[in-house]
Amino acid sequence: MASHIVCKVSELPPGERKIVELEGRSIGVFNIKDSYYAIKNVCPHYKVALCEGTVTGMPLPSKVGEYVWGREGEIIRCPWHGWEFDILNGKSIFNPHKCRVATYDVTVEPIQENLEDERVETFHVTVEDGVVVLHI
């Protein structure tokens, strides 16, 4: 299993999503209340970009005559035909036992100090009295 850095934590605040292309797959990464989830960006109905849909909640079981709304920010609605899926586990809302989208593990890891050094050679730069000084 390969690991890919998607972004810094600060670049994906709660309630936001980021769609990435990795290993030939389009994947939506979501920050839901400071927990991170990833689902395949393909609706199984008509193969459209599911993660471009509306993130919403859903009605919860309640007594007759009551309407209880919950799970706000945990449900993704397909932009074409409104099929809804649970972002936390990929299961469809209408038929969770037979219809789902793939999910992927997401972790938050500390930034490695030498990460930049592995990608590009960089040098420390400071500004002194309006003069840019490069330290090699």
TrEMBL record:
Rieske domain residues: 4-109
Database matches in InterPro entries: Rieske_2Fe-2S, Rieske_2Fe-2S_sf
Superkingdom per UniProt: Bacteria
UniProt keyword DNA-binding, yes or no: no
Keyword Oxidoreductase: yes
One term of GO molecular function: dioxygenase activity
Keywords carried by this UniProt record: 2Fe-2S, Dioxygenase, Iron, Iron-sulfur, Metal-binding, Oxidoreductase
Alphabetical list of PROSITE patterns matching this protein: RIESKE
Protein name as catalogued: 3-phenylpropionate/trans-cinnamate dioxygenase ferredoxin subunit
Organismal lineage: Bacteria, Bacillati, Bacillota, Bacilli, Bacillales
